[in-house]
Design goal:
mainly beta; Jelly Rolls; seven-stranded antiparallel sheet; 2 helices; 24 strands; 7% helix; 42% strand
């Protein structure tokens, strides 16, 4: 994976050279931007919320701004050097972080809640390779598990899905040829988990809390490692078709040809979020 800066949270090093990094903690030590932009329900005013001295979302500022109403995430800032932020401009489709004055939490830490009806965030143009390592801290319903899509429609265009059920747990489309796994139905369950996807020339697997999943039936063969620039959809298919329901705390994606840092990265994430 090359030479990369490492820093520590929870006693384990985290590789900072990610392509997309959305989190409610600071995950790149030199990152000086905000964490999220929040809209409050009382008057639809927005405010950028940063991090406290420990590198965690500034909860005090967030709750003071939102007050007794609700707060919704308009922008989740990408902490990589690529500045490709996840945005939702439609108020009704913004996920929730403060509900009637109460912070949304999972495992005692803040989370962003998606309603499974129309909530989503989108990076308009994200440049990702075919060979990636992807990590997501989430808790979803069994009926509507998480869904990430790198494409306007990965069924017909180049891109990929990472899906929490057996409907192609992972799915890669390159040049109109697909490679996917049936997976195991509802493999994420209804508890908070770390979901990992590794796709490269030697392995194409998903993991739950660091444990290799059952990829089930595999259709077709490995796709070539190609750089694709297209939308990245969080908890939705293109923000319009299918939506995940549940909470999200962190997403990190590396353009990575080996997956060699998987166990170290998973250890960092599991320790920090207390999974």
């Amino acid at each position: 994976m090359g030479s990369r800066l490492l820093h520590f949270f929870g006693g384990n090093p985290l590789d900072e050279n990610f392509a997309l990094g959305f989190s409610l903690r600071r995950i790149r030590s030199s990152y000086t931007g905000y964490c999220i932009e929040v809209r409050r329900s009382s008057d639809n005013a927005t405010l950028n919320i940063g991090f406290d001295s420990s590198g965690y979302l500034d909860i005090s500022t967030l709750l003071s701004f939102v007050g007794s109403g609700s707060g919704y995430v308009k922008t989740w800032y990408n902490q990589s050097t690529l500045l490709q932020d996840a945005i939702q401009l439609t108020n009704a489709n913004q996920p929730n972080i403060v509900n009637n004055g109460t912070l949304r939490t999972e495992g005692g830490k803040a989370c962003i809640f998606f309603d499974g009806i129309n909530d989503s965030l989108m990076v308009t143009t994200a440049t990702l390779n075919t060979y990636i390592s992807m990590y997501a801290v989430c808790k979803c319903t069994i009926a509507k598990p998480f869904l990430f899509e790198h494409s306007a429609n990965a069924n017909t265009n180049s891109g990929f899905y990472f899906y929490g059920t057996n409907n192609a747990s992972w799915f890669f489309n390159r040049f109109s040829v697909i490679h996917y796994a049936y997976g195991v139905s509802n493999w994420t369950g209804s508890s908070r988990i770390l979901a990992t996807l590794i796709y490269n020339s030697t392995q194409q697997n998903f993991y739950k809390n660091g444990v290799l999943g059952n990829n089930g039936g595999i259709v077709n063969s490995l796709r070539p490692n190609t750089s694709i620039s297209t939308s990245f959809n969080i908890f939705s298919r293109n923000g319009t078709l299918i939506f995940g329901e549940g909470s999200l705390q962190e997403i990190i994606i590396y353009n990575d040809t080996t997956g060699s840092n998987r166990t170290i990265t998973e250890s960092n994430i599991l320790n920090y979020w207390g999974i």
